[in-house]
Amino acid sequence: MRSNSRILSSRTVFKGRVVTVKVEQVFEPGGVKAEREVICHSGSVVVLPRLADGSVILVRQYRHAAGRALWELVAGGIERGENPQQAARRELREETGYRALRVKPLFDFFPSPGVLTERMYLVEASGLTLSEADPEADERIRVGRFTRRQLKQMLEARKIKDGKTLAGLYWLLNKHPGN
Q1: Which residues of the chain are under the pLDDT cut of 70?
Q2: DSSP states of the chain as a string?
Q3: Which tens digit of pLDDT belongs to each residue from 27-37?
Q4: pLDDT tens across 123-162, in order?
Q5: Phi, psi angle pair for 10, to nearest 5°
Q6: pTM here?
Q7: What is the pLDDT of residue 1?
Q8: Which residues, other chains included, contact 174 with Cβ-Cβ below 8 Å and sequence gap of 6+?
Q9: Exposure string (b/e) for 132-147, b if CB count within 10 Å is 16 or more?
Q10: pLDDT averaged over the chain?
Q11: Phi–psi pair at 90, nearest 5 degrees
Q12: Domains (ranges, CATH) in the chain?
């Protein structure tokens, strides 16, 4: 919802496979007139896969923009015609091979609202059964299973660097401290 803001002009300066970049002249609440660079993204899902014993599945993959491999929650774009729960099931199967009996929406957030329109939806997946993964051609994914204790240790040692994963794991550890 854009309260009292108006776009005075907008021009696309880049259109890629995943994002579009626009430069917009805007009139914002409070009388602010400004030029804003906006990265447009259709939205994504972040999956918190919880096994019956309470452990969590993370994936490790190389992220070019970060210049390193990162441990992350399963995540990916929401495709046209999908809702976050459908996207969560698809991404979980593609990246890890796990199928979820239940998917539960938890909350949504903007990872970088100063420049990015992307909204991320955190979804908990449970009732997991293992089948075969089907990653995209350019994905090299390592799957790991972590206990709550291991996750706490990774967070305390600052081993988790990915924002969406930090949000999901801190939610899990604060919302469900004992299980």
Answers
A1: 1-3, 133-137, 139, 176-179
A2: ---S-EEEEEEEEEE-SS-EEEEEEEEETTTEEEEEEEEE---EEEEEEB-TTS-EEEEEEEETTTTEEEEE-EEEEPPTT--HHHHHHHHHHHHH-EEEEEEEEEEEE-S-TTTB---EEEEEEEEEEE------TT---EEEEE-HHHHHHHHHTT----HHHHHHHHHHHHHSTT-
A3: 988 888 999 99
A4: 999 999 988 766 666 767 889 999 999 999 999 999 999 9
A5: -150, 135
A6: 0.90
A7: 47
A8: none
A9: ebeeeeeeebebeebe
A10: 92
A11: -65, -50
A12: 6-40 (no CATH), 44-175 (3.90.79.10)
Amino acid at site 103 = V
Amino acid present at 74: V
